[in-house]
Amino acid sequence: MKNINHNNIIYTFLITALLIITASCKRDVEDLEPASFPTTAEIFIDGFSAGLSYAAFGGSDVTAFDTDTEVKYSGTTSMKFAIPDAGSPKGSYAGGVYFTEVGRDLSGYDALTFWVRASKAATIDIIGFGNDLGESNYQATIGGLAVNTNWKKVIIPIPDPSKLTEERGMLFYSEGPEEGKGYTFWIDEVKFEKLGTLAHTKPSILEGQDQVISTETGDNLTIGGKSASFNLPTGVDQRVAVAPSYFTFVSSNPSVATVSEKGIITVLAEGEAVITAKLADIDAVGSLKVVSSGQPIRPLTPAPTPEVPSEKVISMYSNAYTNVPIDTWNTRWEFSTAEDTELQIDGDDVRRYKQLNFVGIEFSSATIDASQMTHFHIDVWTPDPIDPPAAFKILLIDFGADGNFGGGDDTSHELSFTNPTIRSESWFSLDIPLSSFSGLRNRANMAQMVLSGDLPTVFIDNVYFHTDGEITVGPSAPIVAAPDPMQNTEDVISVFSDSYANVEGTDFNPDWGQATVVTQEAIAGNNTLVYSGLNYQGMQLASSQDVSMMTHLHIDYWTANSSALNTFLISSGPIETGYALSVPTGEWASVDIPLSDFSPVDLADLIQFKFDGNGDIYLDNIYFYNDSGMGTGTGGGTMPTVAAPDPTQDAGNVISVFSDAYSNVEGTDFNPDWGQATVVTQEAIAGNNTLVYSGLNYQGIQLGSSQNVSGMTHLHIDYWTANSDALNTFLISSGPVETAYALSVPAGEWASVDIPLSDFSPVDLADLIQFKFDGNGDIYLDNIYFYNDSGMGTGTGGGTMPTVAAPDPTQDAGNVISVFSDAYSNVEGTDFNPDWGQATVVTQEAIAGNNTLVYSGLNYQGMQLGSSQNVSGMTHLHIDYWTANSDALNTFLISSGPVETAYALTVPTSGWVSVDIPLSDFSPVDLADIIQFKFDGNGDIYLDNIYFHK
Amino acid sequence: MKNSKLILIQCSLLLAVLLVFPQCTDEAPSLDNRNYTLVWEDEFDGAAGQLPDATKWAFDIGTDWGNDQLEYDTDRAENVSLDGNGNLAIIARKESFAGSAFTSGRIKTQGLFDQAYGRFEARIKMPWGPGIWPAFWLLGADIDQVGWPQCGEIDIMEYRGQETNLIHGSIHGPGYSGGAAVTKSFGFPNNRFDKDFHIFAVEWTTEHIDFFVDETLYQRITPDATSGEWVYDHPFFIILNVAVGGNYVGFPTDQTPFPQTMLVDYVRVYQEVN
Questions:
Q1: Which pTM value belongs to this model?
Q2: Best mutation site among B19, B126, B128, B249 for testing chain A: the one with the most A CBs within 10 Å?
Q3: Domains and CATH numbers, chain B
């Protein structure tokens, strides 16, 4: 984790590429004739070959690549790569991909060749082909390419040309500074060739070793170390790192272990299987002998089913009950050797610990109030001998009133059990009066449990607290009505409410096969929709509803016993998107869900609602509304009523295209005929001339003359829209070369962006000829100008540090696993400044009284969590961040392996920005085993409220 | 009786240029038919690991044959033996042996067979790697009486392991030996000599020596092409060897793969009959 390896770079890049490359045409596969792809060999001779595009890797210096007419091997032009110095604010390395939209048939060639020279002797980290911005199934790379000041020809053999019938990845590279110093290299005459002079292909897997691995049924293994060496015409071998899809993997015994096309082994049964591989019919050196001991030793029958009524139980682990959230079943505390897995016996989930010396089980994020409970229950099965003094021990820990470890109020007690209480190879149930845990003086904030003893293998099930008495429970139904809605009728499309006229004809109980019982009850005189025993439930609108002019969906709901509740909007298709509601409530809860959260549901064509989850749910006041008519501070109406803010840049630092504040480039055509549907007008808004795009599909601006803005640093645009949900702006240089930048919409008030011009790479800033906007909706634009921010205020409305605290989190603590926040109890023991060799300076500062994590001079920075966190029950990662000077910032989640995935944060910010990143965006990171965070990028970053939630 | 029909390649060869890729015209006249009779051969049939037939081949044992080669040539089966598939294998190894860092093999027909004129051919698959220098060549049988280069040398095939698509044919004689030899190269534009077997041959008459790769004549040397005495009028014997390093090929490098094997399918010698 200390070093950025290149797999990480690829992952990082995948995200960035989506940002950089927005204007890509999707082909309709069904319309295509059977593949006949161009066999074009040339990639770069004296310029980009037909169809070739470039995208820089995330975190890299996006300006590193350029063409050069001075230094070249032959012809007129070469490719130049300016590797940045270490710590360069433009990026820490250079790297990117040259790819085509339409694949090429390269099966007639046997190598990628080019000439290379450098400004000094250096070693290029990675260069190759087959990176297609997607799965890159046929990636082939050479590492550690030595270059010097003389031109030399480089040959990268194609591992198996017959695979490359539709390849899009033409060339990619990644190179960092040499001992901290940047330099330049050039390559030229880049093309695929049929050399015929490559020989003696020698593929290998597992670095050519014959390995043996002990496994159990159910294990998955990945074959690594895949490469091939090819003898070059010079008689020397060239090693190429080869993507798995080039290989054909074979299992000698598929009934024991199978192996996928990607080299993933799945162990199926007891026995032995040898996994080998071929590359183009040549046997690979190296093999993996999988020795499976079969099914783990395990109970033959499930644990006895608990019979305690569920209302008398707080269950931690049981199929018989709804379980409370547990942070982790294996905290992996230091010196613990326990490994845990979950498996099923006759459909019943049980948890197995192996190599158990002790294991921590933590539920401190949502502590358990067992104060009304009388017993602790656990079912245990072990295959191990239980002769005395062998013992099985249970330690229960309560964190006390402060809910946190330490603080002087923690209490705990450990009990030890021996033969004959414990038994071997049969389930035994421990049902222990909590009074026996005599040292456990408080039970209202139970937070940890430790299992230990002399049984190395233990299966557990039905872990719960219960009471043998009666417990006081809250009401199971609301006794008051849902709150009265306050929206103006004209701003509302209502589905279910006594306060509004509802959409007519809605079927509130369509037969979708559900088990839910639907009734309508008067609660305090107010008609309420009741779902009893929810599994899922639909609502069929009588007719398709267009709610695209609305901004929010409002729902009032009440439940005492639900632990999961989602609401879905459904448009034709069907296209549906869910939104998780916090449960249980115990009182009426109101949510106002931004309709943008339901993307990609078509808001102009809503046909159904759906709810799923569990428990008994009371619903009321289900309606859509538009908040623009109210004093919410987000402005309002369909057009701005105030002028765009006055620009603050010095006229001397500005090249203006459209602004009353500056003299504009002359002769610009604001409505060139590019076939667009957009209606273009100019209107005075509060006396200020404003450019208006009505019904935008796309729209160009033809500059009166080519503009050289290479001396400028930013593009400024003020924009306003109430109804757009997609808006991009493009700069275009001759060629044309164009790059898009996505603007956040809708704004509902004037929004100002200051876009670093480097974001428009590879557009030639010395030769700008056009602007383009695309997207939808009605757009008001003003103050479109370029400026140079050097030597003056940034105009982004801020200093170098925040003056206000990050916004207060609004998530329920019970739905949160927090890493850094004053609002929640955080994962304990996290190291916010582990030594991974970074240059970043880490401090914690009080910003308006709120503790804030500060990264100064970020290059990269890790966080080592105090213990592995299972966040698989969470849906989002929340981060608040603030930066005035960063132009690159990524956050990474890291699970054991390490497996890490990056997410790019939009920077710089003009104030605190909150992001809620779907955890699915971090795939393939193992959400059940998060061990670290990482940030990389540059600038000074203020962070707060880093937590997972659902 | 072998009946060789050979095509004379008439190209505008640039004589001063070392390397020529023959590009031939359709009108190339055919070489005169010649009738040859096989007079000596070794097909190298036999069990794997067996030494070459001692009635046909003798070993040169030792190191440094005048070219600063690095290997020690032995008479061990590890270096020279049949491969069991009808080939002779001469194997260069990276191993310390008798003060040398490499071993290899060098066998000859000296004292067992020699002949003036006719066709000498061998079918060979090359080793590879920088510093590897295999050869199939002839030396004048009177070397012990008149010395080298007076005895004459005909290099039917020499090859550098770092130029896997090139072979070289040369003659060395008095006044034109070593770097001054009469030589020409033959190259494949899209192939190399270590992927498959190829036939290397000379056809030697009183008027000329013709050099062939497979069925391509790429060099004819006549007496007027030499600056010195034409000494190709007496019997020559055959040598097969794989050198490691030396002033012709340069040093092997860390990147030279070892062991390296030259496989010889057969050696055949013919005399012309009328």
A1: 0.50
A2: B128
A3: 33-273 (2.60.120.200)
